[in-house]
Amino acid sequence: MKKLIAILLLSIFALSVLTACTDGASDDKTIKIGASITPHAEILAVAKEILAEDGYTLEIIEYNDYILPNTATESGELDANYFQHQPYLTDFNAENGTHLVSAASIHYEPLGLYAGKTAAIADLADGASIAIPNDGTNEARALYLLEAQGFITLNDDVGFTATILDIKSNPKNLVINEIEAAQLARSLPDVDMAVINGNYAIQAGLKSDDALAFEDKESDSARTYANIVAVKEGNENNKAIKALVEALQSEKVKTFINETYAGAVVPMF
């Protein structure tokens, strides 16, 4: 009987140790991070080389959606993720009861205005059509970009909750089509212009030189919508996470971003 009790106690102890080691990022030398394919996983590949020099192994798991990386980070399946900005994370936590926080801001992907059937801003005709993202976090950014070009004006102090209902004046009578962000590049043949997220522009083969206009990297949008490394609350000061952030905010990564994306992705460090 004593032997059986001893075995049970040993099993319970082993299970508690295993649970502790798998709850969020551990202090060992392996870091599991979820990321969007472009540009996040590409940037992480550079950080992986840096981390290897310090004895860390970075496992990069690529995702094509914006939900699974967060749920996997919450459950401890991932140590961190890198694909989203703070407003999206804040909304996700509120809607899903998760407890994720930012460990650091890494880069910003400015929205760009790209030509469809109309090649230049000066040629935009009365009644022309412009496609913009239909999600709450990016629609306002797109509208502010259109306002910066003089196409529309928005109601005062509407902030980043602006929708097409907040357009105060539209002198060219533009038809503004709200489209899923991932489909905007495909919409170009059917609209005069489209405002496209940086990551989707890159995936579609659009270059920064193709954009007719960009969000200003010094704008409120840049500061608000910087892409972050997200972790479960309590893990932001973990040794491995700090090593990850240091690698991502290195000069080597900054150089890679600037040389690879030529303005379509902007370092925020």
Précis, in short:
The chain has 269 residues and is of the alpha/beta class. It has helices at 2-22, 37-53, 68-75, 86-96, 136-148, 184-187, 198-203, 220-224, 239-248, 251-261; strands spanning 30-36, 57-63, 80-85, 100-108, 112-115, 129-133, 153-154, 167-169, 175-179, 193-196, 211-214, 227-232, 266-267. The protein is elongated, with a radius of gyration of 22 Å.
**Total domains:** 2
**Global geometry:** elongated
CATH-wise, what's the superfamily of the largest domain? Answer: Periplasmic binding protein-like II
Counting copies of identical and different chains, the oligomeric state is single chain
- State which percent range the strand residues make up: 15-25%
Written as H for each helix and E for each strand, in order along the chain, the element string is: HEHEHEHEEEHEEEHEHEHEHHE
User: Biggest sheet: strands side by side, in what order?
Assistant: 2-1-3-12-4-13
Secondary structure class reads: alpha/beta
CATH fold name of the largest domain, please?
Answer: D-Maltodextrin-Binding Protein, domain 2
CATH architecture of the largest domain: 3-Layer(aba) Sandwich
Q: How many distinct helices? A: 10
Helix content percent band: 25-40%
What Rg is obtained from the alpha carbons, in whole angstroms?
22 Å
| Main sheet makeup | 6 strands, mixed
Q: List low-pLDDT spans.
A: 1-25
Tally of DSSP β-strands? 13
CATH class of the largest domain, named Alpha Beta
Please state the average pLDDT score.
Answer: 90
Distance between the termini: 62 Å
